[in-house]
């Protein structure tokens, strides 16, 4: 199975794909160009911000909770109004947000990492009902944040470590016990990036540099792969009217001008119809 182009606008670092279940609309980010992107039928939509933006959860039909390099804010898609929710490493100019996703309990997990040229460690946080709490420190490149549909388990990775971890959650969505290794890619030389789960709990992982999304069962077994034309496949989402459409962002970051000229599909956003079904992204409770 090979994906086709959904949107041909090139992203320097495409990330944060989100299917809004109430709007029946797909959103994604170009982190390094400070953009939120979407489409209205054949018409491209774009919102520009003053700093890096990377991930979102929906808070209402007209609004998204957006993670930027300094804060979480509620963004009104109709008016463009921004409502501050909380600071996110606002005192550190060398960091930015990266991968993030809402959990079934209504919380929002968000990772931070160093900007280029800065070697500081990042972290993964959870925002829940007015509280931002650090979950994991010392994360170089936080990715693969997603959840079992029943809310009992979370997944995440430090791409630099090449292992996807799994974590048990309590009834309120907070981690309980220690994380364990779910998938180990170190021997294969693969770089796990963003992930999403489907309605059966299978994990769909975009693999940076490998041009594809690989699907793993709840036991960690490889189920199938979907080829993505962009080399740096960065994050998947499942959406569309029946939640059977795979969307995947890609990036031009780290690719040479010669490679981009020869393969302009890099950085574009792709889609593929699948025989699997996703589940609606949960609403974030502010």
List keywords for this structure.
286 residues; Neuraminidase; 1 helix
Secondary-structure blueprint:
Layout: E1 4-7, E2 14-20, E3 25-30, E4 35-40, E5 43-48, E6 53-60, E7 63-68, E8 71-76, E9 82-87, E10 95-102, E11 108-114, E12 122-128, E13 131-139, E14 142-147, E15 153-158, E16 163-168, E17 180-184, E18 192-197, E19 203-207, E20 212-216, E21 222-227, E22 232-239, E23 245-251, H1 257-262, E24 269-273
Antiparallel strand pairs: 1-24, 2-3, 3-4, 4-5, 6-7, 7-8, 8-9, 10-11, 11-12, 12-13, 14-15, 15-16, 16-17, 18-19, 19-20, 20-21, 22-23, 23-24
General description of the model:
The chain is mainly beta and 286 residues long. The chain has one domain (4-273): 6 Propeller (Neuraminidase), CATH 2.120.10. 2% of the residues lie in helices and 53% in strands. The chain is built from 1 helix and 24 strands. It has one helix at 257-262; strands at residues 4-7, 14-20, 25-30, 35-40, 43-48, 53-60, 63-68, 71-76, 82-87, 95-102, 108-114, 122-128, 131-139, 142-147, 153-158, 163-168, 180-184, 192-197, 203-207, 212-216, 222-227, 232-239, 245-251, 269-273. Strands 1-24-23-22 form a 4-stranded antiparallel β-sheet, with no helix packed on it. Strands 2-3-4-5 form a 4-stranded antiparallel β-sheet, with no helix packed on it. A 4-stranded antiparallel β-sheet has the order 6-7-8-9, with no helix packed on it. Strand 8 and strand 9 form a beta hairpin. The model has no long low-confidence stretch (mean pLDDT 97).
| Physical arrangement of strands within the biggest beta sheet | 1-24-23-22
Rg (CA only): 17 Å
Helix content: under 10%
Which stretches are low in confidence, meaning pLDDT under 50 for 5 or more residues running? none
């Amino acid at each position: 199975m090979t994906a086709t182009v959904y949107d041909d606008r090139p992203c320097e670092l495409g990330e944060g794909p989100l299917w809004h279940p109430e709007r029946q609309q797909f959103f994604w980010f170009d982190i390094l160009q400070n953009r939120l992107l979407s489409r209205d039928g054949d018409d491209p939509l774009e919102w520009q911000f003053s700093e890096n933006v990377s991930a979102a959860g929906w808070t209402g039909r007209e609004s998204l909770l957006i993670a930027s390099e300094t804060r979480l804010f509620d963004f009104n898609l109709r008016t463009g109004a921004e409502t501050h929710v909380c600071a996110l490493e606002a005192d550190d100019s060398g960091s930015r947000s990266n991968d993030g996703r809402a959990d079934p309990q209504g919380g929002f997990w968000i990772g931070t990492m160093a900007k280029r040229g800065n070697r500081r460690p990042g972290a993964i946080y959870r925002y829940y009902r007015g509280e931002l709490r650090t979950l994991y420190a010392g994360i170089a490149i936080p990715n693969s944040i997603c959840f079992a549909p029943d809310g009992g388990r979370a997944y995440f990775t430090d791409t630099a470590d090449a292992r996807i971890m799994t974590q048990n959650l309590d009834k309120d969505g907070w981690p309980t016990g220690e994380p364990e290794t779910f998938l180990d890619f170190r021997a294969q030389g693969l770089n796990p990036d963003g992930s999403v789960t489907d309605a059966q709990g299978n994990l769909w992982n975009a693999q940076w540099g490998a041009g594809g999304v690989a699907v793993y069962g709840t036991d960690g077994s490889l189920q199938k792969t979907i080829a993505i034309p962009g080399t740096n496949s960065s994050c998947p989402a499942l959406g569309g009217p029946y939640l059977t459409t795979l969307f995947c962002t890609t990036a031009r970051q780290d690719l040479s001008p010669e490679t981009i000229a020869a393969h302009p599909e890099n950085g574009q956003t792709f889609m593929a119809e699948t025989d699997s079904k996703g589940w609606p992204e949960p609403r974030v409770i502010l």
